[in-house]
Amino acid sequence: MKLRQGIIISAVIILVSIIPVSVLAASSQEFFEEKGEVYDEWGVCRTRCSGQEGFFQVFSAAEFRPVIAFESLGERADRAYRAGQQFTEDYPDLHQRAEKVFEFARNKVRYTSDAEQFGFKEFAQNADEVATTISQKGIAYGDCEDYAVLLAVMYKGAGYRSAIVLTTDHAAALVYLPDYRRANMSLSLDDESGWVWAEATGGNNHLGWMPERYMGAQLTACEVTEEAIAVPEPAGKTPAIVTQESVGTRVHIFPFFGVIALMWLLTLFRRRR
User: Within 10 Å of residue 215's Cβ, how many Cβ atoms?
Assistant: First the structure.
């Protein structure tokens, strides 16, 4: 009996090891692959930020459009936007509410590279994907653009104007919060002052703290608005499965050898009956 239990447990362990850790829970339910790039159902390329199909539609150092944020706004508003709305009920004070939204993203997302989490040099998550992971697991993982998009959408839900700001190697969020006194730098967007830097990638950061290396650097910002996204036909693209690896210690068993081992165990089990 003990041997039989041991065989069953071993078989379960092997099955678990050959199944992907988790399929990306998303507001985008379908992903497609074309020439090594991954696209979502809106035709947004998740593995590239530049160009018409890129998730930030970066055309030059002075022009971009954060199209991936639009996937979670307007008629597509979902979990991230609703999470921001909840803060309006809990925190009527504008400054305190903005800080609490910031702290939510800072504390609920752990900075992790895309290569470590997805196996791609670059892979952007939309705000609802990150928010869904937080809801299901209590914590999510992402890099700078994931923090920026989540904050930008949540701030919209919480009743603020928000923007995304890019440098040559970084993305962050901005929130319009005139008279906020904790910011270490006064920022203007289109000659309108009152914008506050939201840099949630560090566990000790606070709303308004802007890293010194970006002070005086060339920055490009775009306010996030509710814009429509057309759903293109996925012509020429093949379905793709996007998986998230567990972050930390991992054990991988190559599927072929996992199946062979499972077959051997099942044969042994039958002999022992």
Answer: 11
Model pLDDT, residue 86: 96
Scan for tokens 């697991």, then name that residue.
137
**Residues with Cβ within 8 Å of residue 219, at least 6 apart in sequence:** 165, 166, 167
Residue 272 has pLDDT above 90, yes or no: no
Sign of CA dihedral 36, 42, 46, 48: positive
Which pair of structure tokens corresponds to residue 103? 């702290």
The phi, psi pair for 39, rounded to 5°, reads -120, 150
pLDDT score, position 28? 54
d(CA 144, CA 200): 8
Model confidence pLDDT, tens digit, residues 130-178: 999 999 999 999 999 999 999 999 999 999 999 999 998 899 999 999 9
Strand 187-189 with 243-244, pairing: unpaired
- pTM score, two decimals? 0.79
The answer to whether residues 61 and 167 touch, using CB atoms and an 8 Å cutoff, is no
pLDDT top residue among 86 and 265: 86
What integer pLDDT is reported at residue 238 of this predicted model?
Answer: 75
E strands present in 21-77: 22-23, 31-34, 37-40
